[in-house]
User: Which sequence fits this backbone?
């Protein structure tokens, strides 16, 4: 049986009919064409599907779409405003903090959730926030640098 | 994932009715970090998935001197970690919850879910053992409390009867001087299961020890406890017989994370580190009084 759900995604109200066995990740990608969040492992180990739900970073592969009812969701597509990149996106580019880019939307959303709750994080807090996001090509140092720069810690 | 029916009741009575009606066909959805992975892999194929996150009393975290700490089933790991009362009075629990998965996973995963999953390596279970936690269980007949070491029966096996649902965990108030620590030995800091783990807790000179990932279920270290309780001075050298006692209490296996022999060696080191860290907390004089 399908369920009628309503939620906000990147500031827009959405009404949907979803099957219970669909994950939030699949709904975002297949029904809403928001393909920024990616499936890597599908089991909460790689973080490439990370989105922000009610202000909190979560693995969207391990949340059902029906559970999004009433929630406020932010995906990587919602970071840029009026054609201007979020400071995090800009600093990822400036620091070359990506190569293949597959982990980048997840990294950005984990970092965004961190800066939303803690605008001036320590290096350990940054490492904790992205500890669940695997990158297999860039290496983490430039990603840490990019997040620090976005937080105004490096000029 | 196979098709299933999704229900989101708002009372415990409704949950009990659904569980009685569907039996084994029904599964509880809490944080989903274990359930949805097992469903995706078709290790389980429930007909009904019961989301319990709309039940108000399962979201509660409260402390009273009489009853101690109640952590509702739907309270997330990060909510436990950030709770002032947990940090002040049950620090070992916050530390252990912090060892689970990754930050975003802890926004969904729950303490009760970790207990009900009953994995031999569940990070929060050993600390709950040494804190003498009880599992609070609801059924149509009323509420019962079961000591956690009796609730966990084996790998993914728990003492829950048909029609029963876990409401949360009840941890007694701690009186007097105390200190505890959980030491997790893993291959990497985040998103890994414990290769072995040890929880150590000392209250007014009485020790409680629990071992993780070295048997089908988390084990209390009774022999190690007895040695520690009779020790005048605890230091690295004095701990050698306690480390040997720990080895005699466990039955580790070889698996993808480590060999049996490595686990035997590491339980010794982990025990030593957990006891010394707990002792440090104890000597800081963390009093169980506000």
Assistant:
């Amino acid at each position: 049986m399908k369920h009628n759900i309503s939620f906000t995604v990147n500031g827009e109200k959405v009404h949907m009919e979803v099957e219970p066995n669909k994950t939030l990740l699949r709904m975002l990608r297949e029904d809403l064409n928001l393909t920024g969040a990616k499936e890597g492992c599908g089991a909460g180990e790689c973080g490439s599907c990370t989105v922000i739900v009610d202000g909190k970073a979560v693995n969207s592969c391990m949340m059902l779409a029906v559970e999004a009812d009433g929630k406020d969701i932010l995906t990587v597509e919602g970071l840029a405003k009026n054609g201007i990149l979020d400071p995090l996106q800009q600093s990822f580019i400036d620091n070359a903090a990506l190569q293949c880019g597959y982990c980048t939307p997840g990294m950005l959303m984990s970092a965004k959730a961190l800066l939303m709750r803690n605008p001036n994080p320590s290096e350990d807090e940054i490492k904790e926030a992205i500890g669940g996001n695997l990158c297999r090509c860039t290496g983490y140092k430039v990603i840490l640098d990019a997040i620090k720069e976005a937080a105004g810690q490096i000029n | 994932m196979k098709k299933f029916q999704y229900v989101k009741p708002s009372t415990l009575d409704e949950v009990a009715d659904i569980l009685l009606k569907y039996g084994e066909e029904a599964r509880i959805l809490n944080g989903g970090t274990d359930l949805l992975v097992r469903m995706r892999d078709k290790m389980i194929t429930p007909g009904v998935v019961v989301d319990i996150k709309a039940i108000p009393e399962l979201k509660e975290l409260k402390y009273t001197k009489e009853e101690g700490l109640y952590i509702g089933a739907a309270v997330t790991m990060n909510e436990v970690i950030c709770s002032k009362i947990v940090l002040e009075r049950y620090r070992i629990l916050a530390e252990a919850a912090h060892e689970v998965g990754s930050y975003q996973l802890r926004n969904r995963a729950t303490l009760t879910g970790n207990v009900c999953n009953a994995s031999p390596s569940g990070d929060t279970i050993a600390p709950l053992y040494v804190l003498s936690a009880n599992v609070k269980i609801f059924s149509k007949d009323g509420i019962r409390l079961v000591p956690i070491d009796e609730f966990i029966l084996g790998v993914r096996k728990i003492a829950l009867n048909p029609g029963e649902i876990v409401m949360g965990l009840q941890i007694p108030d701690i009186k007097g001087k105390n200190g505890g620590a959980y030491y997790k030995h893993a291959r990497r800091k985040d998103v890994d299961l414990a290769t072995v783990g040890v929880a150590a807790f000392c209250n007014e000179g009485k020790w409680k020890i629990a071992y993780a990932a070295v048997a089908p279920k988390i084990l209390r270290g009774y022999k190690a406890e007895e040695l520690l309780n009779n020790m005048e001075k605890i230091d690295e050298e004095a701990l050698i017989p306690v480390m040997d006692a720990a080895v005699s209490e466990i039955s580790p296996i070889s698996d993808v994370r480590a060999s049996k022999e490595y686990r035997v060696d590491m339980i010794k080191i982990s025990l030593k580190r957990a006891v010394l860290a707990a002792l440090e907390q104890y000597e800081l004089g963390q009093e169980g009084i506000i």
Chain B has three domains: 5-51, 56-171, 178-284. The first strand of chain B starts at residue 5 and ends at 7. The mean pLDDT of chain B is 94. Chain B touches chain A through 27 residues (CB under 8 Å).
